Amino acid sequence: MAEIRVENLRKQFGDFAAVEDSTFTVNDGEFLALLGPSGCGKTTTLRMIAGLELPTSGRILLGGEDVTFNRASARDIAFVFQLFALYPHMNVRRNIGFPLLSQGVPKAEIKTRVEETARLLQIGHILDRSVSGLAGGDRQRVALGRAIVRRPKCFLMDEPLGTLDAEFREVMVHELRELHNRIHATTVYVTHDQHEAMAMADKIAVMNHGVIEQYGTPQEIYARPASMYVADFIGSPPMNFLRFHSGLETGATSVTVGEVAVRVPQVHAVREPGELALGVRPEHVRFSDAAPLRGSVYGSEYLGTNQIVSVETAQGLVKARVPAEQSFAIGENVGLELDHDRLSLFDCASGKAVPSSLTAEARHG
Amino acid sequence: MSNATSAHSVVEPSATTKRIAGIIVVLYAIVTMVPLAWIFMTSFKSPPDSISYPPKLVFTPTLEGYCNLFTTRTRQTPEYIQSLGPPQSTCDEITRSRNMVIAGPSNYWPRFTNSMVIAFGSTFLAVFLGTLAAYGFSRFRVPLADDLLFFILSTRMMPPIAVAIPIYLMYRELGLSDTALGMILLYTAVNVSLAVWLLKGFIDEIPREYEEAAMIDGYTRLQAFRKVVLPQATTGIAATAIFCLIFAWNEYAFAVLLTSGSAQTAPPFIPTIIGEGGMDWPAVAAGTTIFLVPILVFTILLRKQLLRGITFGAVRK
Questions:
Q1: Which of A324, B122, B222, B290 is the most buried (most CB within 10 A)?
Q2: In chain B, which residue's Cα lies nearest the Cα of A148?
Q3: Which residues make Cβ contacts (< 8 Å) with residue A154, sequence separation at least 6?
Q4: CB B219 to CB A83 under 8 A?
């Protein structure tokens, strides 16, 4: 196992920059999820780490060794493809043993290691089956088996659960994390599904238009989004934005949204008057008759343990996650109380978070 | 299928449709088989039977056509033939009954062997080169790939006879006329365009992820090509090989122009039998029948691949 370092990585396809100036480190044994919508450059980044694509500029280090221009076959990494890419002309056993064969491992040892791997993944009973008849989950396990059988420096996975149905995907998310806990392999996992990323990863890199918008633990990314893009991409429903026009002074602890003063985490920067947005997660909104910030109930979505209530305010629609027992009439005038220490402030022009005591926690915590 | 009586499937043809389709196929098969059956029957007829009108469907089979195909004969007086003693073989006997003796073997076997060497040699080369070229076109960003593919195909756009004279002159200069090597090169050149186009389609269908997986599993691109792409392209390769072989095997125009002696193939040779001692149709038919065998065997051996190859796009990956 080894650490992966990516430095100023850039990939240009003609005029289109697929990946721009990516720099991040995946520590030894860590599970990183590259998260973003399709076309954001996450798969290209992964393919460059794998050696299936050469970067336009930048460096890739595996365990301290510069492998930027090494062949894929010389990097000692494993890759799990979205469509698994199991060799259709080989049975399960030969598929899993194929990477060992290239290393000249003796036949007897291949046999033991393949069987060991199959036991770990609980696919021992299908070893002599043809891969074409396998169910999605078994294909997935065979693909994983082929990846872990030779104990590579790291695992790269490109949306490996993308083709599985929803029910099975949850099982596999659990299995993948279990597997990671057991073998502690440095893993880079590409997905567009925030739930997969949140559930499995130690670190998440949120990508958009070839740029890493934020790199951090799932908790950091959820609680202290670095940009409006991240705030909007993570969470379902995503973070609410209350847009208002104002300037900011260092040390300010409240902002005026519309006519209402709202307490916020202490601001650590100066902003000329302009468009700002107050970001609040649905679970940090409570209903309170006394609250000065008011709106009218627009609709609600019942989710069993709780419900999402949409409230129309002068600053836009706010979704609140509240207990399922509360009942509201459509059009009812309600007061909204926000958890002031959990609020984010964004500069609408740049889309970036305004430094505050909340974001400072991220740097020091 | 099982509920054919109660439910009407939209995609499954009905029993009547299938029956009609079956009848059409059988009729078509009969029509295409008639010339083959005719030739096969003629090869076992005696020369008088072969030209009788109306054609005889019932006749006494004889090997005379085959004997004449494989031998050259000289006419002798009955007294001389009498003095020879008992005939050595069936052919000897048949020949003597026509007041002739066998003078030696004919050129049919050498010509047939030439055909085998040239057709299989050029097919192998065309498929080999075609597979590599198709792989290159399919997987790499080749500059002007579309134009190159068009140029490759354009070699098949004119009839062979249009380029026959320049090729004849070139071959004479190069010392390639009437050589097996010359014919192999020529047929390879003609077939390689077909091979590239057919195989590119097949290789395009093989997902790149397989090679990428193999390269990550520690193999070089060439090893990945050999161990992962080739096994999956066998269907396409087999189909392409059959098409190339059929062309090279049956080719007549270039063969008649560029070969006359040692490298002559069977197609230009067979008609020359007609000239030797009258219209020997049974011998011509025998030559044609034997000529059909290798292609028939090859096609039957590869028929599974051929069928899968032709219906490739319809098979779910």
A1: B122
A2: B217
A3: A1, A2, A4, A26, A62, A77, A78, A185, A186, A187, A188
A4: no
Predicted ipTM > 0.90: no
B172-200: pLDDT as tens digits:
999 999 999 999 999 999 999 999 999 99
Q: CA nearest A343: which of A261, A274, A288? A: A261
- CA B2 to chain CA centroid, Å, is 42
Are B213 and A81 in contact (CB < 8 Å)? yes
Residues 6+ apart with CB under 8 A from B31: none
Q: For B246-302, how does the pLDDT look when each residue is reduced to its tens digit (9 = 90+)? A: 999 999 989 998 988 889 999 999 888 876 566 788 999 999 999 999 999 998 888
Q: Are A64 and A27 contacting, i.e. CB atoms less than 8 angstroms apart?
A: no
Q: A4-223 — its CATH code? A: 3.40.50.300
What is the pTM (predicted TM-score) of this model? 0.79
Contact yes or no for B218 and A73 at CB 8 A: yes
Element (H, E) at A194: helix A194-200
Q: How far apart are CA A215 and CA A23, in angstroms?
A: 10
Tell me how close the Cα of A104 comes to any Cα of chain B, in angstroms: 10
Residues from chain A that touch B212, judged by Cβ atoms under 8 A, are 50, 52, 72, 79, 81, 85
A238-364 topology per CATH: OB fold (Dihydrolipoamide Acetyltransferase, E2P) (2.40.50)
Q: How far is B68 from A292, CA to CA, in rounded Å?
A: 114
Q: Where are the domains of chain B?
A: 47-106, 109-314
Cβ A1 vs Cβ A182: under 8 Å: no
State the span(s) of chain A assigned CATH 3.40.50.300: 4-223
CB contact under 8 A, B209 and A81: yes
Judged by CB atoms closer than 8 Å, whether chains meet at B216 and A102 is answered as no
Give the neighbor-by-neighbor strand order of the sheet with A316-323.
A285-287, A333-338, A294-302, A306-313, A316-323
